[in-house]
Design goal:
With 499 residues, the chain is α/β, with parallel strands linked by helices. It contains 15 helices and 21 strands. Helix 8 (218-226) packs parallel to helix 9 (247-255) and helix 12 packs parallel to helix 13. The radius of gyration is 23 Å and the shape is globular. 46% of the residues are buried. It is found in: Cytoplasm.
Length: 499
């Protein structure tokens, strides 16, 4: 009997990407197989939407996609559609009312129930809607199908205690809950044993870690503990909050060799007035003070940020304050957003909503300034010799240009000439930068060195296993229900809102 195939479509932040790895792991543990690349829309037996409630028009995008699948499902009665994530947590019964052909709706707190809900919907022949109000168990207990053999997400907390007026995520993900440090480190050690050489610590407000136990230095202690894990080459984290970013974290970053000198520090606005309206608990001086301390400790640090343009009540003077911070901070890159109303947030009903054309004009000025700064900062990399960890799928033109792509220690994207010897994703290639563009670096000369790694071995082993696997033949009946617990991670925060 051929196994049922599945497809997971992910929208939103890193937390959702990580949750989708768990959804895939759950389905494969229950006997499903991933639909092959290039499978036509609607041909998978189970289609799962892992949704985001932060992005503009998220609901319109979801219902448009669901609408396209409706006639396909009519032609294929055994097909099932599931909707999870933040939008499912928010809209609940509305989804089935607007799209009655949906089989399962599940929330952010109970992703582990997906296989059971699919089976129940099949047997009872009616939609199953199950939204837990609080976290039932850390998703770290769930199986995972990681997208990468050499890099992995590791969640250290779920939820958020902030009340930013533009963000609905805390209402959907709940209050912050921290994982035990021992569980986090045990998961990282297990990942490294599998060949992973780079991990990214995830949290809605990652540097607030330890608030559960009242230890303000818990996050810096965690970073230092990561430095003692043999075989772990690169440690990153996202996203911190300026309010909780303390000097001990800067010291840990500077003094722990495998913690990368890369920092994503969400600004949102440079205006103290707007920051107050956003309920962001820092001001311009505090933000720039952090940047100054980071640069003093790590002159080579690449700092990125999130910025919202056109928040309700933002004046031209407020916007100029944002431009001032961008000029002072000299971000390597910035994720810039035009403010859009998000139903359920206080900002959606605030007075002083800015006309679209004004927001657009300000946005274009900000993007132009940041492009100029990004290019200038990248030009400083020309002539430097960098160790690049080879990545999979980072360079769309690599085949045509006979290049490979990867990430420098500071996370800059580097395209480089393919070495004569075989190189695998996860291996490390030493190159000299010869050219800089605003969003990538180029190394056109021959590689200075190639280091084959355990991470590359893991990628090679996984690729060989996938090639050898028979096409979807399943013995016996799929297991249904929550799998047995094993130490691993939780979900994280929404990088899009920057808390």
């Amino acid at each position: 009997m051929s196994a049922k195939t599945y497809e997971v479509r992910t929208y939103g932040c890193q937390m959702n990407v990580h949750d989708s790895e768990r959804l895939s792991g759950l389905l494969e543990d229950a006997g499903y197989v991933r639909a092959p690349e290039g499978t036509a829309e609607g041909d998978a037996d189970v289609v799962v939407f892992n949704t985001c409630a932060v992005r503009e028009n998220a609901d319109n995008k979801l219902y448009g996609n669901l609408g396209r699948l409706a006639p396909m499902k009519t032609r294929r009665p055994g097909m099932q559609i599931a909707v999870g994530g933040c939008l499912a947590q928010k809209d609940r019964d509305t989804i089935v009312k607007r799209a009655p052909w949906v089989d399962v709706v599940f929330g952010t707190h109970n992703i582990g129930k997906l296989p059971v809900l699919l089976e129940r919907a099949r047997i009872q022949e009616e939609a199953q809607v199950e939204i837990a109000e609080s976290l039932e168990a850390f998703p770290s207990t769930l199986p995972t199908r990681r997208e990468s053999a050499y890099a992995a997400w590791v969640s250290i907390s779920v939820g958020c205690n902030n009340t930013c007026t533009f963000c609905i995520v805390p209402a959907l993900r709940g209050k912050e809950k921290d994982r035990r440090t021992g569980d986090i480190l045990a998961e990282i050690e297990a990942l490294v044993a599998e060949g992973v050489s780079e991990i990214t610590l995830l949290g809605q407000n990652v540097n607030a870690y330890g608030s559960d136990i009242g230890d303000r230095e818990a996050f810096s202690k965690l970073l230092r503990a990561c430095g003692r894990i043999e075989g772990l080459e690169r440690v990153r984290f996202t996203s911190p909050h300026p309010r909780d970013f303390t000097d001990d974290v800067i010291a840990a970053m500077a003094e722990t060799p495998n913690v990368m000198h890369q920092l994503h520090m969400p600004l949102q606005s440079g205006s103290d007035t707007v920051l107050k309206a956003m309920r962001r608990s820092y001001r311009q001086e505090r933000f720039l003070g952090i940047i100054e301390k980071v640069r003093a400790a790590m002159p080579d640090a690449a700092i990125s940020t999130d910025i919202i343009v056109g928040f309700p009540g933002e004046t031209e003077e407020d916007f100029e304050q944002t431009m001032h911070v961008v000029r002072e901070a000299r971000f390597a890159n910035a994720f810039t957003f035009q403010y859009s109303k998000r139903p359920g947030t206080p900002a959606a009903t605030m007075e002083g909503q800015i006309p679209k054309e004004v927001v657009q004009a300000r946005y274009e000025r900000l993007v132009a300034l940041q492009e100029e700064i990004s290019w200038d900062e990248n030009k400083k990399q020309v002539g430097r010799t960098l160790e690049v960890m080879v990545a999979e799928g980072e360079g769309r033109k690599d085949d045509a240009t006979h290049r490979l792509s990867g990430r420098a220690p500071d996370n800059r994207l580097v395209h480089f000439t393919k070495p004569d010897e075989p190189v695998r994703p996860g291996d490390v290639v030493t190159v000299e930068i010869t050219y800089a563009a605003p969003h990538h670096l180029l190394a056109e000369g021959p590689a200075k060195g190639v280091r084959r790694t355990r991470a590359g071995d893991a990628w090679e082993k996984r690729t060989a296993a996938a090639a050898a696997k028979p096409a979807g033949v399943m013995l016996g009946i799929p297991a249904i229900g929550a799998p047995a617990s094993s130490p691993a991670p939780a979900a994280a925060g929404c990088g899009g809102c920057g808390d």
